[in-house]
Design brief:
Order of helices and strands: HEEEEEEEEE
Number of strands: 9
Radius of gyration: 20 Å
Shape: globular
Helix content: 10-25%
Largest sheet: 9 strands, antiparallel
Structural class: mainly beta
Distance between the termini: 43 Å
Strand content: over 45%
Number of helices: 1
């Protein structure tokens, strides 16, 4: 019961609602981790920093585009991957100036080489690392490939690639399926990154 005068919630109801919320988060997180739920990370104009020690990918298309966020349109490099296997994944984002806390960083880490994703689309502000590719085709029409509509832009297609120690600034991320074994999400009371 909520007391209007004091704004307090009885301890029993708080525990019940908090417990139900944690069960929901656990079920959703478990579904994503086992690949049973699609994954969609859409940001409000603030990027995630991501690091991966190794990436193996097949069916890659890269092209420029604009992404709609709560902060407005942002230019991006769209990287579409049909199949991806990732090693030692780390994602981080900072919430700055929180009342009573200051800067807080959210980390999502997946150790090892068992992370996989299907139909992965990552919009990035920047990407860097070492890359080995095969079957490269440059200057393709992204509109003809069905990747964008209403604008002319060229695309790069790669049949297969392998990258090591890659760093990316992620604007948004979607995947039709993902498997993240050993996912750990933590929060630290400081401004940091992967």
């Amino acid at each position: 019961m909520i007391s209007i005068a004091s704004g307090a919630i009885h301890r029993g109801r708080f525990v019940l609602f908090a417990g139900l919320g944690m069960i929901g988060v656990t079920i959703i997180g478990g579904g994503i981790a086992t690949g049973q739920l699609p994954m969609n990370l859409a940001l409000s104009g603030q990027t995630f920093t991501g690091t991966v020690s190794a990436v193996g990918a097949q069916g890659i298309t890269v092209y420029p585009r604009a992404v709609s966020t709560a902060a407005g349109e942002m230019p991006s490099i769209a990287v579409k991957i049909d199949q991806a296997q990732l090693s030692d994944v780390c994602l981080s984002t900072v919430a700055r100036g929180l009342p009573f806390l200051g800067d807080v960083t959210l980390f999502a880490r997946v150790p090892g080489d068992s992370t996989t994703a299907e139909s992965l689309v990552v919009d990035v502000a920047s990407v860097g690392g070492s890359l080995t590719v095969a079957d490269v085709r440059l200057g393709l029409d992204a509109n003809a490939l069905g990747e964008v509509t209403g604008s002319q832009t060229s695309a790069v297609q790669v049949g297969e690639s392998w990258a090591s120690t890659t760093t990316i600034d992620i604007i948004s991320l979607t995947a039709t399926g993902a498997s993240l074994q050993g996912l750990a999400v933590t929060v630290e009371g400081r401004d940091a990154s992967c």
